[in-house]
Amino acid sequence: MNATLESLPVTQRHSVSSAVVPAANSLVALATDMTVREGILEVPGEIQLYHGGKLANIQIAWRLVGPATAPVVCAMGGISGGRHVCLADDPRQEWWPQIAGAERPLDINQYRILSFDYLGGSGETTGPASGETFPSVSSYDQAGVLLRVIDHLGIKALHAIAGGSYGGMVALAFGELHPERVSHLLIIGAADRAHPMATAWRSVQRQILRFAVDCGRPKEGVQLARALAMSTYRSTEEFSARFNGEPVLDSDRFVFPVESYLFARGSDYASRYRPEAFLCLSESIDLHRVDTARIFVPTTAVAVREDQLVPLGDIRAMVARLPVARLHEISSIFGHDAFLKETEQLRRIFAVALESVP
Known about the structure:
Blueprint: E1 11-19, E2 34-48, E3 54-67, E4 72-76, E5 100-101, E6 106-107, E7 112-116, H1 139-153, E8 160-164, H2 166-177, E9 185-188, H3 196-214, H4 218-233, H5 236-242, E10 248-250, E11 253-255, H6 257-270, H7 275-287, E12 299-304, H8 312-321, E13 325-330, H9 338-341, H10 343-355
Parallel strand pairs: 4-7, 4-8, 5-6, 8-9, 9-12, 12-13
Antiparallel strand pairs: 1-2, 2-3, 3-7, 10-11
């Protein structure tokens, strides 16, 4: 296999820095030296990707939030989770508000929170344009993007990487490739490789989307693919509790409560996510493979017993193979999405993991 994102000079297109002042009615206080910095790195020349593809003149969008001199924790989420982890101008952009923020498990009064838009996604980092064929992207390539960002910012080593779902996969890849640049890995709902059943579900999602694109209806394809994906993110217990009501007759057919929910979520997602990006990063999840024997960074792994996508047994097996690792098992009706929702269960786990760093 080819090396990931070979070393190239990086230039910065723009950067902004601004103090953040808490609202007068805020229930929590922010550190007085709280800052938000963000920018776009432009990488000149051609880069070689892990699976053999090439890209030229990529750009990487990043964001750093927190007290100016605090330790840096990189936070990464699912394929639609970009650089706006928390404290965004528009709260609707935040993908981890229940976990990252003032007095949250990932406390922005204690840590600077770094993140970036994924390569191949729908953010401002280089990704596929409409109708464009984009090369396959590996979790190793995303790790290379993160390395460029911390090199640019002059960060010698990350205090930790906190990654849920796809972000956990990228964290493991970074820990394997660059162990000297991170002190701890905090992995939620991610393993060293994708489970074949999860790959089966995602393969069907991608084929639905490709079919819709061929039919000239790409947005509807994203809606369908995302609706199917949502049915795998949550638990059977949650769906039973929320959607056990009677169907409603709409014109000539019945509409079921769970159906309304899934397609509403799919429609919202389709309004802001490009079909080509969904195909690229969904495939990247299933291509994910790391060598656990080479990950010597101390690792805290969190497994959710109700997770359909990343079974408990897979995370247990991964932790058994990792040289230095600890496993926490939790239960949640949110299933795979527990990493987004379980504020109190994750609070203690995050505290122990982050405070264990020398």
